[in-house]
Design a protein that fits this description.
Blueprint (H helix, E strand, L loop, with lengths): L17 H6 L20 H10 L2 H5 L2 H14 L5 E2 L6 H5 L4 E4 L3 E4 L6 H6 L5 H4 L1 H13 L11 E6 L1 H10 L7 H9 L1 H25 L3 E6 L9 H16 L3 E2 L2 E2 L2 E5 L6 H5 L5 E3 L6 H8 L4 E3 L11 H15 L5 E2 L12 H24 L1
Parallel strand pairs: 1-4, 4-5, 5-8, 8-9, 9-10, 10-11
Antiparallel strand pairs: 2-3, 6-7
């Protein structure tokens, strides 16, 4: 018997579409905000759900739990988007590499890709058969976002790791401080590296399209380790494959454009090139000046970021001041999504996030009122 594929909730009207309009550089009455890793260990309710699930993978691979934790930050904070709770390593796990999470050590693979035979054996996974728990979660989250009046509260973001970032874990077998093994392959056997990256890119295209068909309304590509590459290598081994993914994605669904965001941590040097890759928005880490970034992209794409996550350890008045500083740096013009320059720390005091979200909304509304008055 063929298992029925999850269907997205019908295209309910969006109560708050500010995030999607900002990604498309359309006017908004405030700057939308969401946080990378907004459903995570800094929230006590997340930790309670994870304990019930028994493990991180038990949490991520159960659509009911994934839906529960996706919605948790929205219950605490008036965020402008939800992001699917999952992990960037779902694709190599679906390839049969044996993903494991060890307490205190993070993710690792039982079968790292090291030899020519390992590389030759890689295949694009059957998304429905191996990653149906992800698309099932997407569809369930969309339904859970519908309020009592049939309106969807906020948009849902789907995501994947970039081909290069996935390759880093697949070849190293775990996280790395110097990427020695994967970079050795890159320089010594670029043919093998390109084979890995091509399989990864085709897998990401299929994976993100499945998320979009299940109900994701924006797609984000996390190129977490792109900044570890040298200039020249970045363009060949990371950006080229991001470009391939963007060209292969469904860009309209349920009568709406599906915006695509690319985030390369440490990628400020290549901002213009990332902006020219076909994406709708570029994520910025905290090393990038948003004022200069806006000038550099010249209105071609929206920008997302770039607050240092460590600012959330500061007193609330400092958090509010830093939010205003970043909003002033970008200005009230369309095309800005407020976010952190990387994921929120597990040690962040949850109450400090309230100060950030409140200040971003309140101050950006005043900015736009001033723009209108001018």
């Amino acid at each position: 018997m063929i298992e029925a594929q999850p269907q997205a909730a019908s295209a309910a009207p969006l109560l708050n579409d500010t995030f999607l309009r900002a990604l498309l550089r359309q006017p908004t009455d405030h700057t939308p905000i969401w946080l990378m890793r907004q459903a995570g260990r800094y929230l006590p309710e997340y930790n309670a759900t994870r304990a019930r699930a028994g493990s991180f993978l038990g949490l991520a691979k159960n659509p009911d739990y994934a839906t529960e934790v996706t919605l948790q930050p929205l219950e605490r904070y008036p965020l402008d988007a939800a992001i699917l709770f999952s992990d960037i390593l779902t694709i190599p796990d679906a390839m049969g590499l044996g993903l494991e999470f060890t307490q205190g050590e993070g993710p690792s693979f039982a079968k790292p890709v090291r030899t020519e035979a390992d590389v030759a054996a890689l295949q694009v996974p059957d998304i429905a058969a191996t990653l149906g728990y992800v698309t099932g979660a997407v569809a369930e989250i969309r339904r859970a976002l519908i309020d009592g009046q049939g309106r969807q509260r906020v948009p849902l973001i789907g995501f994947s790791g970039s081909p290069w970032t996935l390759a880093c874990y697949m070849v190293e077998g775990r996280g790395s401080s110097d990427f020695r093994t994967v970079k050795t392959m890159l320089y010594a056997r670029p043919d093998l590296m390109h084979r890995i990256l091509d399989v990864n890119a085709r897998s990401v295209i299929a994976y993100l399209n499945a998320q979009i068909e299940a109900g994701a309304q924006a797609a984000m590509i996390f190129d977490t380790w792109g900044g570890a590459l040298a200039d020249g290598a970045y363009q060949e081994f990371s950006l080229a494959y991001i470009r391939q993914i963007v060209a292969g994605l469904i860009r309209e669904h349920e009568g709406r454009k599906v915006p695509v965001i690319a985030f390369t941590k440490g990628g400020g040097l290549w901002l213009e090139q990332i902006a020219a890759s076909g994406v709708d928005a570029v994520g910025l880490d905290w090393t990038v000046d948003p004022r200069a970034a806006r000038q550099r992209v010249a209105g071609k794409v929206a920008l997302q970021g770039s607050l240092d996550p460590s600012i959330l350890f500061a007193p609330p008045e400092t958090i509010r001041a830093e939010a205003r500083r970043l909003l002033d740096a970008y200005g009230p013009e369309a095309g800005h999504v407020f976010n952190l320059g990387h994921g929120i720390s597990q040690f962040t005091p949850p109450d400090h996030v309230i100060s950030l979200v409140d200040e971003v909304h309140a101050y950006s509304r005043k900015q736009r009122q001033g723009l209108a008055a001018g």
